[in-house]
Amino acid sequence: MKLSLAHFCLIAFLVLEAINSATIYYLHQSSLPHSKQVQSADQSGAQRILAPAISGLAANMRATVARIAQSPQTINSLKSGSERERLAQVGNIHTLFPDARIQRTLPNGKAGGNAFTQPLSVVYADMPQGSGSNPALAIAEPVMDMENPAILGFVVISKGSAELRSMFESLQLQDAYAELQQANSNGPYNVLMQRGDARLKTSAFQELTDLQGTAWRLVVWRAPAKPVTSPVQTHLAAWALSSLFLALGMAGLYLALRKAVKNDIDSLLLFFSDIRHSRLRKAYTFQLKDFEQNFELMYRLGKLMLGKNKQVNESASIDHLSQVNNRRSFDIKQKELFKTLAEGWTHSLLIIDIDNFKQVNDTFGHDAGDALIVQFGKALKEQLRSSDFIARLGGDEFCVIFPNTPLKKAEELAGRLRQNLPEELELTRGVMHQLRWSGGLSEYKKNDETENMALSRADSALLEAKRAGRDQTRMAA
Ligand SMILES: Nc1nc2c(ncn2[C@@H]2O[C@H](COP(=O)(O)OP(=O)(O)OP(=O)(O)O)[C@@H](O)[C@H]2O)c(=O)[nH]1
């Protein structure tokens, strides 16, 4: 599958976004169980700590009060009504409970005075009621006459409020309101103690716990669990923000990459275009290091290739002896110029033949003839403009094309050439040759059928020059 840069960046963004979303979801989830744990620990605190403590206290008190109520001394002291026995029993109880305050009561009567002001009281009395502001945990046990079954009176132990209050105050309550209540036979529950924010009573969830062995119960109102909105909002905001940064970052990366890649691809295309046109610039700009490093090798190869190419082209177009253009490149040049005639351009040509060349060969040898060709080519290049096209057509015959030059002007140039070419050339060391040449001039015509017709006319003019005694230039008619 082929991917564009935009597709690649989009896929990378989606993958990163998925990782980002999963991470934030994980963080969100891991924050939820913690708050639940705290909540359940709070809910069980009242029952776990206070209920067993008060129930255990009541059980101990009940065992003690039963022991006192069933002792023969207690029964006898109530049955006889003797002051002596009652005082003896008071002494016994004082031994057991040094802090006890003993109060005389009628067998079925009310206790006189306040029996519950001390931390521990033992009274012969009815079941006492605690007061709202100063409650006491009271346990009563009847004193029975076993011989003549009847209730002789009651033994009551009450625990003062200070110890209960400190137990109640030690309750761990968070976001809750608690009441210690006492059952009331003729109405609603009395509130003995209370803690926390009473406003929760109207809106909160209520937990009831009966305290075993007592007429009390513990009621806790708890605020409903807070909806977990703030973590969700925080995490949503974090997700949106991180996604936005991710998208912006990826868009920036895409634009920067696209700019760099486009620049480097343009440079590569420019390089290949230059190679096609057989030229190279000094430098090509690259932004990506990867491109630049690999391009260095390509650039060196391109330079080498163009150098070789130039050599091959030159060797294919240059005459190996005279070092001017050969016949093949002359034909190409002619064709090229011939096409431009239709556009109104004018070109002329001069055909040159060295006079009596054969004699040189015959007199001084073929190498001397070659040397004359070499020297003559060199002299032509020195005397003509670089825009003039010089070629050797074969043997001792050369041709000069004057581009953008009408015949009249070419005649003037040919005359100047005749004047400026050296009088003599050195064939071999010490052997000088008097240079003479004949020339034929003509102009390319746009109504010529082929590009060679101008050459043919120049050839005829050359022949005329030869016939007229050589060492002169003739113009085609
Ligand atoms: N040394 C040498 N001779 C060549 C070369 N090519 C052709 N020739 C000889 O050049 C001579 C050409 O002579 P022509 O141009 O026909 O005769 P010419 O002596 O110059 O007489 P005119 O042209 O009438 O003045 C021939 O003898 C060819 O063999 C070459 O590459 N090197």
UniProtKB/TrEMBL annotation:
Keywords: Membrane, Transmembrane, Transmembrane helix. This is diguanylate cyclase. GO terms for molecular function: diguanylate cyclase activity. GO terms for cellular component: plasma membrane. InterPro entries: Diguanylate_Cyclase, GGDEF_dom, Nucleotide_cyclase, Rev_trsase/Diguanyl_cyclase. The chain crosses the membrane at residues 236-257. It comes from the Bacteria. GO terms for biological process: cell adhesion involved in single-species biofilm formation; negative regulation of bacterial-type flagellum-dependent cell motility. It is an enzyme of class 2 (transferase). PROSITE patterns: GGDEF. Its EC number is 2.7.7.65. The keyword Transmembrane helix applies. The keyword Transmembrane helix applies. Pfam families: GGDEF. It comes from Sulfurimicrobium lacus. Residues 345-477 form the GGDEF domain. It catalyses: 2 GTP = 3',3'-c-di-GMP + 2 diphosphate.
